[in-house]
């Protein structure tokens, strides 16, 4: 009995959603943060998409957002030339870090003590959060705006992708460039999978997988349309991708076969990420929404409820699904 | 003809009147900074701070021992809205958010098993 994927739409943002990130699994479940051009990043419960709170304070579009592993802290990068650190439990702004240009990307180390930022001033900055008044360490080298920067290799190294069509690997202690990858076109997204040291990169219609330590190419997969973001499943059996044709694609990682594709968004997909338990993936789009998609369609998880064939006569799927979204007064 | 996967409800959207981060959520109560921070006097004086910390430990231990000795005893709870109820105390959860009680005598009858929300309780008494 074939089941059709029912995406869960998370509304609330009023402008395109440009970045999203999941936390690790905490005693309270896992969480999702979304960066939006409306300047108001939101925190949601990861498995249901329920809104928890909005981080208020930025005065411009938020380009990047991240959570630390236990979802106690959040960091955001914005067009108001600041990166901010937030208490993700109370929603309070904890730190505002002034930059000289639009900040595009933020990333915590595993111990949450150091924040990496990057943006249009072409510099990578390392902020010691236990000593926030101290000047950050700066790494220069990129010749164009930095789009994404990530800690890797147990926080001993940094990976950065910029408009100069390069991805560079830096050593944290020496602050020196270790390796560079050059492309014909600007990389649209980058994801680091610590377990297995895999780097997922997208450019044009290509999703490429690299060894994160050696920067050696593992494989490339071509998608039917221009891809803006891709994410590898924690168990590395699937990966998902989304881009300019508004669709989400799911591929088999070993065979590179396209398994499923879904329409749903009303605009290009800007970001897609698997949840830490791999049970769902979230996508953010130009249409201002986030959508949650099941990895195993039909499985009971979060708000999705498995209905056995014998129940289908009594319990109409339409009845359950056709409720209007509730807005808490 | 594939059937769409049924959903229990749609994800909850933002509250138009607040920025969220519900202070009554279990996560907020468990993780937010203690509502009672150390007194101003002890902030600067480490000896004073030690004394204060010791006093806090004594009070905390006393409270926990009190909960232990209450087990299976009849306890009277004084609650808000002039509510006085009696029940047999079972246990408290780790964050002292709820008390599990049995035979809760209420104005509308006896509830065999119940959870009492701790924030609704003003005080409670029992015979040792």
Automatic annotation (TrEMBL), chain A:
GO biological process: negative regulation of transforming growth factor beta receptor signaling pathway; spliceosomal snRNP assembly
Family of this protein: Belongs to the WD repeat STRAP family.
UniProt cross-references to Pfam families, sorted A to Z: WD40
Keywords assigned by UniProt, alphabetized: mRNA processing, mRNA splicing, Repeat, WD repeat
Protein name listed in UniProt: Serine-threonine kinase receptor-associated protein
Gene3D superfamilies in the record: YVTN repeat-like/Quinoprotein amine dehydrogenase (2.130.10.10)
GO molecular function: RNA binding
Keyword Lipid biosynthesis on entry: no
Entry keyword Repeat: yes
Segments annotated as WD repeats: 55-96, 96-137, 139-180, 262-294
Cleavable signal peptide: none
Gene Ontology cellular component list: SMN complex
UniProtKB/TrEMBL annotation, chain B:
Pfam families reported for this sequence: Gemin7 (PF11095)
Every SUZ-C domain range: 1-25
UniProt GO cellular component terms: SMN-Sm protein complex
Residue span of region Disordered: 1-24
UniProt superkingdom: Eukaryota
Any one of the GO BP annotations: spliceosomal snRNP assembly
Name of the protein this chain belongs to: Gem (nuclear organelle) associated protein 7
Originating organism: Amphilophus citrinellus (Midas cichlid)
């Amino acid at each position: 009995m074939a089941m059709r994927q029912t995406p869960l739409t998370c509304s609330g943002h009023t402008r395109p959603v440009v970045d999203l990130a999941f936390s690790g699994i905490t005693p309270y479940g896992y969480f999702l943060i979304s960066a939006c051009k409306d300047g108001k990043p939101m925190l949601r419960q990861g498995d249901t998409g329920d809104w928890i709170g909005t981080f208020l304070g930025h005065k411009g579009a938020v380009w990047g957002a991240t959570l630390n592993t236990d979802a106690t802290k959040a960091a955001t990068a914005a067009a108001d030339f600041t990166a901010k650190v937030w208490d993700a439990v109370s929603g309070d702004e904890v730190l505002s870090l002034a930059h000289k240009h639009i900040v595009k990307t933020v990333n915590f180390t595993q111990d949450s003590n150091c924040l990496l930022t990057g943006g249009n001033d072409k510099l990578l900055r390392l902020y010691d959060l236990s000593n926030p008044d101290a000047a950050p360490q700066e790494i220069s080298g990129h010749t164009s705006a930095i789009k994404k920067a990530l800690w890797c290799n147990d926080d001993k190294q940094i990976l950065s992708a910029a408009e100069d069509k390069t991805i560079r690997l830096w050593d944290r202690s020496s602050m020196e460039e270790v390796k560079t990858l050059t492309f014909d076109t600007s990389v649209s997204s980058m994801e680091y999978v610590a377990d297995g040291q895999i780097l997922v990169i997208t450019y044009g219609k290509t999703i490429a997988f690299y060894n994160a330590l050696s920067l050696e190419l593992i494989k490339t997969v071509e998608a039917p349309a221009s891809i803006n973001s891709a994410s590898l499943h924690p168990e590395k059996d699937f990966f998902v991708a989304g881009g300019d044709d508004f669709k989400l694609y799911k591929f088999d990682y070993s065979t590179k076969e396209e398994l499923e594709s879904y329409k749903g968004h009303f605009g290009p997909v800007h970001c897609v990420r698997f949840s830490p338990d791999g049970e769902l993936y979230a996508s953010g789009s130009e249409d201002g929404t986030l959508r949650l998609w099941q990895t195993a369609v039909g499985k009971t998880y979060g708000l999705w409820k498995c209905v056995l064939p014998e129940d289908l006569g009594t319990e109409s799927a339409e009845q359950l699904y056709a409720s209007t979204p509730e807005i808490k007064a | 003809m594939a059937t769409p996967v049924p959903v229990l409800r749609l994800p909850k959207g933002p509250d138009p009147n607040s920025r969220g981060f519900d202070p009554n959520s279990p996560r907020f109560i468990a993780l937010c900074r203690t509502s009672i921070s150390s007194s101003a006097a002890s902030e600067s004086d480490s000896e004073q701070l030690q004394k204060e910390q010791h006093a806090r430990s004594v009070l905390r231990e006393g409270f926990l021992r009190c909960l232990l000795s209450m087990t299976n005893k009849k306890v009277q709870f004084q609650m808000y809205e002039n509510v006085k109820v009696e029940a047999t105390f079972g246990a408290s959860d780790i964050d002292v958010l709820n008390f599990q009680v049995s035979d809760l005598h209420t104005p509308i009858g006896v509830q065999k098993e119940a959870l009492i929300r701790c924030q609704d309780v003003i005080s409670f008494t029992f015979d040792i």
